[in-house]
Specification:
CATH class of the largest domain: Alpha Beta
Radius of gyration: 21 Å
CATH topology of the largest domain: Rossmann fold
Order of helices and strands: HEEEEHHEEEHEEEEEEEEHHEHEHEHEH
Mean pLDDT: 93
Helix content: 25-40%
Number of domains: 2
Number of strands: 19
Largest sheet: 6 strands, antiparallel
């Protein structure tokens, strides 16, 4: 349908020198919002209910409004796409990736666009006052677009503009529409990635066409029972448990990891569950092995109890063997190279599960 026929005559405080534009609130059809939802009470996008987050920890409650994993998907042949985002006033983080939006496109008619492919980054100014606008021109082919939200910034409102005479449709559905749920640390949330579409979950989704939820909470994924209870209540295709880095030590993992698994397993008897240990970036790190053993103990216990749907990924394998030192920013958070290698290693396991 033509964008002009779908228009609700929304007025947005963005000035583009382009005629015949119509604006849409992404909460409205035919746009599809994935990975986050709009909290009417808080008036912002969020990754989980505030009432639950506050029972996990104050830090998690503060991080749920970071829109890691949030995506807006749509299909259009518009030669112009504009965006206006209302975010928190103030100064954005030092890393543009934490606050920027990424737009990707896909068009099966072209070999180089058969999967989601980077088109442009919308980077906010250093100081944000109410919101910011950005734009990109396209070649006018009918294509699927995915706008990735920032990994470490809140988004209050989000609007998209297209040409009035353009077709505007629902996006092509994911091949695997039931989400993979990832729970973990700042690495899971996307710290270190240069763009929000470069998180390991986004790369896996790009390759396998999967819906996903990013429940990564920088410095705050402690395996709390309240979080286990929340995740156990989600409808998901696979659960990826990746919170090793935030646990205070092997003792903490021994105390929380197995109960966390059992909470999810009791709610989902047949759900594939994948355990991942922290990337071991330096061979002399003595803390790595005891933590790895604590998580492996959960895996061994599950197998011994007859669970045939658990999987274990050793963090020592995530970055490969060549130029491992290039894979992190700070010996902890991965660079884009490290994230890409993580994605390929994890994807290999998830692909086998999805294609059973």
């Amino acid at each position: 349908m033509k964008a002009s026929e779908l228009s609700k005559n929304i007025s947005v405080d963005a000035k583009f020198d382009v005629p015949d534009l119509v604006w849409f609130d992404v909460k409205d059809a035919p746009f599809v919002v994935s990975g986050v939802y709009y909290d009417e009470e808080q008036k912002c996008y969020t990754r989980m209910p505030d009432s639950i987050a506050k029972n996990v920890s104050p830090n998690v409650r503060g991080l749920v409004h970071d829109t890691a994993g949030g995506r807006v998907r749509f299909r259009t042949d518009s030669t112009f796409i504009g965006m206006y985002a209302i975010m928190s006033d103030g100064t954005r983080t030092v890393e543009p990736s934490h606050s920027c939006f990424d737009i990707q496109r896909r068009n099966p008619d072209f070999e180089y666009l058969k999967q989601d492919t980077f088109l442009y980054s919308f980077i906010p100014p250093i100081t944000i006052h109410r919101g910011f606008s950005a734009q990109v021109t396209t070649d006018g082919y009918m294509e699927d677009y995915t706008l990735h939200m920032p990994t470490q910034s809140p988004v209050k409102e989000l609007y998209i503009a297209v040409k009035a005479d353009a077709e505007l449709l629902e996006p092509t559905p994911y091949k695997h529409p039931k989400p993979i749920v990832y729970y973990g640390s700042s690495i899971t949330q996307g710290a270190g990635s240069s763009r929000p579409a470069n998180t390991y979950q986004a790369i896996i989704s790009k390759h396998l066409s999967t819906e996903y939820y990013n429940l990564g909470f920088g410095g705050s994924a402690m395996g709390e029972q309240a979080m286990a209870d929340y995740i156990a209540g989600l409808d998901m295709s696979i659960f990826v448990c990746d919170y090793d880095h935030n646990a205070s030590g092997a003792e903490h993992l021994m105390a929380t990891h197995l109960p966390f698994y059992r909470t999810v397993r009791n709610a989902h008897p047949d759900l594939p569950i994948v355990f991942i240990t922290a990337p071991n970036t330096m061979p002399w790190y003595t803390w790595y092995q005891p933590r790895r053993d604590a998580i492996y103990n959960t895996y061994k216990t599950a197998i011994a109890e007859g669970d045939k749907n658990v999987y274990f990924i050793d963090g020592d394998t995530l970055f490969g063997d060549i130029d491992k030192d290039l894979c992190t920013v700070d010996t902890c958070h991965p660079t884009d190279l490290g994230i890409y290698r993580m994605a390929l290693t994890i994807e290999e396991v998830l692909s086998k599960i999805l294609n059973k």
